[in-house]
Design goal:
Helix content: under 10%
Number of strands: 41
Strand content: 25-35%
Largest sheet: 7 strands, mixed
Distance between the termini: 34 Å
Number of helices: 8
């Protein structure tokens, strides 16, 4: 599974990952690539302080949403005594990739400025000069009171000691905290597990998940009544970063074109006297923080404030904006500037310039050559799209993806296929509504927004450029239907794969029922089903439970209730918290099989740490253990799901099935980001994992070249990726997705791109097959999983 907030990781070539959730590090002794404590301030409300209360800010350095529900923030005095206890503040919600999360603590009697709206609130009175803060999996108080003991506690996700704190990471605590200074990480959010090196003192900058960085406004001087010398296009400039970044501006004129009253509040203005340079946008966002904008569309305004570049994520492009604004309304009811039409003719075929992996921020924009340069040249401006096809269904965040290029890599069912790293889909845009009372429709892939949709072109960490709509076209339902594959014939062995998205026994019955219908009805009850993301029986409860019997009992019962067979199951429980995924969830691969049609060759010896091997016999090859795991001690599988191998028998013939769930794309730079070409850092681990599977399949075929092997599951990568080069090396496996027409090669939809993360591969001994990706989830607003299952039916008369 690839995890993302909207089903979107900001992931290179994707998806991603699996959002689910990126794995927590085992302890703070392992530097975190996801959630970190980004800023600590204990001087709130003290004499001389500006802010009225203490705070701790968290940040997500990853590219998938980080779920903090079930976690806690804990505080210990800098020099704890025998009676000192960790004080606990429970957390809820999630942190977007590159986003912040604000935890307000105790207030004092000093200070004049309130924090922005907190995402969580505690009552801990933190010391200004010295203390220790820990981000902890679970809400049970820690008991450690030394750096060494805390380093050994697997519940600690990250830890910051400041001042003279004895509990800290590395050789020294972060220095410089006071009533007027916090300690904070740099913009990169680097975590080397050395507090003294990672954090430095500075002016407190509390930021919440909405991007708000200040409390209510203080007294303001009246704004100017005449335009100043700077116009919007002067601020935007001809590159992605304003030439006036950090500069105070006065009396910038414009017409208010849109107002955002939720989340990161503010409004957009657009100059009605544009220059003649197509590279300089005439629109701009004015950020009002936690204060609701006191303007409306059609107001003619003068805005004074400070120009700033806001980066919503560590690898994203920035949004040029005016912060700390003072706004003068000159008149109301003015006509809005005419929108720029975005369509197949106006959006260029090129996607984005290259900087050899570096930043494109300083490159002059080329809006006639590159789509992302065109969108950047229109950042904050009014645009219009018309009769657009939906390529990504409405998400839980009330957003959909559309394309203004209907013939760009189309899928058979109306999507836009992600074909290669070089062939980007330039016509994709995300659409959101500026009116909370009129969200985007519950559309599926292939539906149409008929007529004009008009609004402001914005940029965000999830997905990049998006239309903040003030006017939405009419939703036309194209009546996309869920597919039902045919049933296998008596002499066909049907083997399927299905990522069931963190299923555990505590889930609602409706989820079990819908997933079960997918197996019994849409997949027509395959003989073998390889499942990914079956959790332990109490899901994210992190208490050492690793078994999945109750989860599988509920699931197989639900399949029977939907008319399917009574499946048996096999799996190997992982070591607690060693296979990644949701903390405490212990996800694993599982085999279901219909004992009326196929038998399982149970062979003892398989466990979480023992590698399975190919054993050559006079009858052919067999497994040393069944079920077994492929080389589980290999570094390739660290904090990741180990492949499950099983030996099945169908009509007297052995079949070796390998269930896989490779590492997610968390950590990859986004397609739309400022680093081009984006780095796919997560790919290294998947290539290693692919080499392990390839090596094992090679050993099976070396013992018996005609061995029938099916490797399947969620590989979290594309058929054109280096992962698949490693997986298929020596032609020991063939990816069946390549046998389908190009318009059907997908099982997942991310950021409006239809793409393939799930695969079935077969060894050369399997020559006649019927393969099908069964589209029942990824294209729909209402889905039981974010992945589509797939099935291969193999004719036993054509094994050789």
């Amino acid at each position: 599974m690839q995890i993302s907030r909207s089903g979107s990781v900001l992931l290179t070539g994707a998806v991603a990952v699996a959002l689910a959730v990126t794995a927590l590090p085992a302890a703070h002794a392992a530097p975190s690539a996801t959630a970190v404590i980004s800023e600590v301030y204990g001087g709130g409300g003290n004499a001389g302080a500006t802010l009225t209360r203490d705070f701790v800010e968290l940040a997500n350095a990853g590219t998938a949403p980080f779920e903090v529900g079930g976690l806690s923030l804990q505080y210990l005095p800098g020099s704890p005594s025998a009676g000192s206890l960790w004080q606990v503040s429970a957390l809820s919600g999630s942190i977007a990739p590159g986003g912040r999360y604000l935890v307000a603590q105790a207030a004092g009697t000093g200070g004049t400025v309130a924090l922005p709206t907190a995402d969580a609130t505690g009552t801990v009175a933190m010391a200004a000069g010295s203390g220790t803060v820990a981000l902890v999996s679970g809400t049970a108080p820690l008991s450690c009171k030394s750096a060494a003991d805390c380093a050994a506690d697997p519940r600690i996700v990250d830890l910051v000691g400041y001042g003279s704190a004895v509990v800290r990471e590395g050789g020294g605590a972060a220095a410089g905290a006071s009533a007027t200074a916090s300690v904070a990480r740099g913009a990169s959010l680097a975590d080397t597990d050395d507090n003294a090196a990672d954090l430095a003192a500075g002016v407190p900058t509390p930021t919440n998940t909405a991007g708000q960085t200040s409390g209510g406004p203080g007294p303001q001087e009246p704004g100017p009544t005449e335009p100043g010398p700077v116009r919007v296009h002067d601020i935007q400039g001809t590159t992605r970063v304003s030439p006036l970044d950090g500069t105070a501006v006065t009396g910038v004129p414009g017409i208010v074109t849109g107002v955002r009253t939720t989340g990161s509040r503010g409004f957009w203005i657009q100059d009605t006297a544009p220059d003649d340079d197509p590279r300089t946008s005439e629109g701009l966002f004015v950020y009002t923080g936690s204060t609701a904008p006191a303007v409306k569309a059609g107001d003619s305004v003068l805005v004074s404030g400070k120009v700033a570049e806001y980066y919503p994520g560590t690898a994203t492009q920035s949004v040029t904006q005016i912060t700390g604004p003072r706004t003068t309304v000159l008149s109301s009811g003015n006509a809005l500037p005419a929108p720029v039409v975005l369509d197949a003719r106006s959006v260029p075929a090129g996607y984005v310039p290259t900087a050899g992996g570096g930043s494109i921020d300083a490159l002059p924009l080329e809006p006639r050559r590159y789509a992302l340069d065109l969108y950047e040249a229109l950042e904050g401006s009014r645009v219009e799209i018309a009769d657009t096809r939906v390529t990504g269904a409405r998400t839980a965040y009330d957003e959909i993806w559309v394309t203004v290029k209907p013939w760009e890599n189309p899928t058979r069912r109306g999507g836009t296929r992600y074909a290669s790293y070089q062939d980007q889909n330039t016509g994709r845009l995300k659409v959101m509504s500026l009116d909370p009372a009129r969200p985007v429709p519950a559309a599926n892939v292939g539906d149409v927004l008929k007529g004009r949709s008009t609004g402001v072109l914005d940029y965000a960490s999830f997905g990049g450029y998006q239309l903040q709509a003030t006017e939405l076209g009419t939703h036309v339902d194209r009546r996309l239907r869920r597919e039902v594959t045919r049933a296998q014939r008596s002499d066909e062995l049907a083997i399927a794969t299905y990522n069931v998205e963190n299923l555990d026994a505590a889930d609602e019955q409706a989820k079990f029922d819908t997933l079960a219908e997918g197996v019994a009805v849409n997949l027509s009850s395959p003989d073998i089903v390889s499942l990914e993301e079956i959790q332990d029986d109490n899901g994210p409860v992190n208490d050492g439970t690793t078994g999945s019997e109750a989860t599988l009992k509920r699931f197989t019962d639900a399949i029977v209730a939907q008319g399917g067979p009574r499946y048996a199951w096999r799996y190997i429980a992982p070591e607690n918290n060693k296979d990644g995924g949701e903390p405490g969830g212990n996800i694993r691969n599982v085999f279901l099989f219909n004992p009326e049609r196929v038998s399982f060759a149970d062979r003892p010896g398989g466990d979480a740490t023992t590698p399975v091997e190919a054993v050559k016999t006079w009858k052919g090859v067999k497994l040393s253990a069944s079920p077994g795991r492929i080389n589980p001690a290999s570094p390739a599988w660290e904090s990741s799901r180990k492949p499950l191998v099983g030996e099945f028998v169908f009509r007297g013939r052995p079949v070796f099935v390998i269930g896989n769930h490779f590492g997610s794309k968390g950590g990859d730079q986004p397609l739309h980001g400022r680093f081009q070409e984006p780095t796919r850092s997560s790919e290294t681990k998947r290539v290693q994992q692919a080499a392990e599977v390839n090596s094992f399949v090679t050993s099976l075929l070396k013992a018996d070249r005609s061995a029938r092997v099916v490797a399947l599951g969620d590989f979290n990568d594309f058929e054109f990726s280096p992962t698949f080069t490693a997986l298929t090396r020596g032609r020991v496996l063939k990816p069946l997705i390549t046998t389908l027409p190009a318009s059907e090669r997908y099982s997942y939809v991310f950021d409006g791109n239809s793409q393939t993360l799930d695969h079935i591969l077969t060894s050369p001994g399997i020559r006649r097959f019927d393969y099908d990706v069964v589209h029942i989830n990824a294209e729909f607003a209402d889905q039981a999983s974010d992945h589509d299952p797939q099935v291969v039916r193999v004719r036993t008369g054509f094994w050789f």
